[in-house]
Amino acid sequence: MSRFLSEKLSALEAYVPGEQPKIKRYIKLNTNESPYPPPKCVADAVGRQEIEDLRLYSDPECTALKAKLADLYGVKEKNVFLSNGSDEILNFAFMAYGENGAVFPDITYGFYSVFADLYGVNAEIVPLNDDFTVDINAFCGKNRLVVLANPNAPTGIALGLSEIEKIVSSNPDGVVIIDEAYVDFGAQSAYKLTEKYDNLLVVETYSKSRSMAGARLGFAFADEGIISDLERIKYSTNPYNINRITQIAGTAALVNQEYFNENCRKIAETREYVKEELRKMGFKVTDSVANFLFAKSDKISGSKLYTSLKERGILIRHFEAERIKDYNRITVGSREEMEIFLDAVREIIIGGIV
Fold this sequence. Notes:
By secondary structure, the protein is of the alpha/beta class. It contains twelve helices and 13 strands. β12 and β13 (about 325-330) form a beta hairpin. The two termini are about 40 Å apart.
């Protein structure tokens, strides 16, 4: 770093993304991307004229995309916010609502602690229960910024709507963020609760279930007041935050809901199959309803399984935090990819690699 960087930022511990290999070709089960491409209508929508129009700025209001999302989810356009990836919404929310502190679990999406440090937000870190479930009561009555991923990452365990509502209703003077990056694979979305509670911000993304991680497109639902706050910050930083191609692709991706539903179904089906196969091998696997599994084995350390699979051309995600160092997070790929993964794990376990 340079000698000019502020002392506060020089101490910042940045978020570390999953590996994106540039040379060797791997089966990528490490960053929770979809194994399926976007529907054909997305490619069809991005034609020569749209490429030529890249000379023009994008629509800062995202008019067509916002209208399509509002119609699909049955909400008003004034209750929808669009962003450059869902991380941008989380960034804005910590900036806007973290002044009195924030509360989130000890094992969750790593960006929450990064944003807290970035904005000097005093963070209360609440330990998950021994079974990695959320201690609901520990998040009630805080009246600060409460942040929960649902399903949680990297565990994949989800809260029910009644549990979410209990947390939201008990924090009337603090914003509650429900980060639903993985909700489409088996959990219940809380977005309808935003019609009842003005302190709820529900965040979603195109990166997982809609097969568009590379497009960087996120969206959120909230009361008009919160949406207005987020828009104020957007227009104070980068009003053209979503490029023309992404807006067009994002709008087109909403047309073919059957394709979307079928992909989510296939991923959930494959997840359950792999979960049972791992358990047959003696793995402990959480009851994930996301597009990934969280697993450990008493026969091999988490780090050794990670490196052994990498040597075989398969990437999974390993974390070094003490509570989860024996676990790995495994993205659910296609059925074919997961068969290769399972065969490799059997070979490693049977071969007695330690």
